[in-house]
Amino acid sequence: MSPSDNAPMPEIVTEAIVVIDLVESTLTSNLFGWYAVGRHSLRDLRGLIGAVGASRGLRCLKNTGDGYLLTFRDPQSAEMAAIRAVEAMFDLLGRVADRNGAMSEERALNLRCSVHLGEVDVVADDREGPHVSLTFRLQEISRASLPAALNPIPPEEFPLRNYVLCSEEVAGILERRASPWQMAGVGLFKLKGFPGWREVFRVLPEGVPVAVGAAG
Questions:
Q1: What one-character-per-residue DSSP string does 9-72 give?
Q2: Distance (Å, rounded) from C-alpha 17 to C-alpha 70?
Q3: Looking only at Cα atoms, what is the longest distance across the chain?
Q4: Residue among 96, 88, 2, 86 at smallest CA distance from 41
Q5: What is the DSSP string of 78-102?
Q6: Is residue 210 scored above 80 in pLDDT?
Q7: Coil, strand or helix: which one is 187?
Q8: For the segment 158-203, what is each residue's pLDDT rounded down to a tens digit?
Q9: Res 213: pLDDT
Q10: What is the DSSP letter of 209?
Q11: For a tag site, which of 27, 118, 139, 174 has the least CB within 10 Å?
């Protein structure tokens, strides 16, 4: 029997899973150097994530190289974990906007955030499982993905930065819980490694109508 056979099985829990990516960072990183720009941006982003997540059930914060994997848990309600995660993302985007207003263009943070809810294998300081993989697939959706989608929105309506996408599971929770946010369908996508078509939604900030057109 190998030592790994005696290792405890990871706990299975339902959590909101978020993947945050830095976008439009390649140009400034190449021009000014990753160590001059990129690592400071990730450090600042980590601090902002901690500030918005501390009171909302943030359980995991893992560096992915050009962003972070987060999970949120609510001990009373799995669905509320999704609400808290989306709430945290819009709080984060608001704080990023304030930060960018006081920074040079080269140090600006521009983000894309994807939110899903599902069972994860909890291992020390990490999360694993197919639902985590699905969230990373959501994160890959861009304007370039739209031609392969069913019923996609016009490419010019897909935002380039500072937006929140969610899975159909999370969109359903936001509707059932009468959240303050609106959802706008982006299209139905074939996500690599997952069967069938998956509908993806953009979550809109409070007070923004569904027919938003292009957004930066």
A1: PPEEEEEEEEEEEE-S-HHHHHHH-TTTTHHHHHHHHHHHHHHHHTTTTEEEEEE-SSEEEEEE
A2: 6
A3: 60
A4: 96
A5: HHHHHHHHHHHHHHHHHHHHHHHHT
A6: no
A7: strand
A8: 999 999 999 999 999 999 999 999 999 999 999 999 999 999 999 9
A9: 43
A10: -
A11: 27
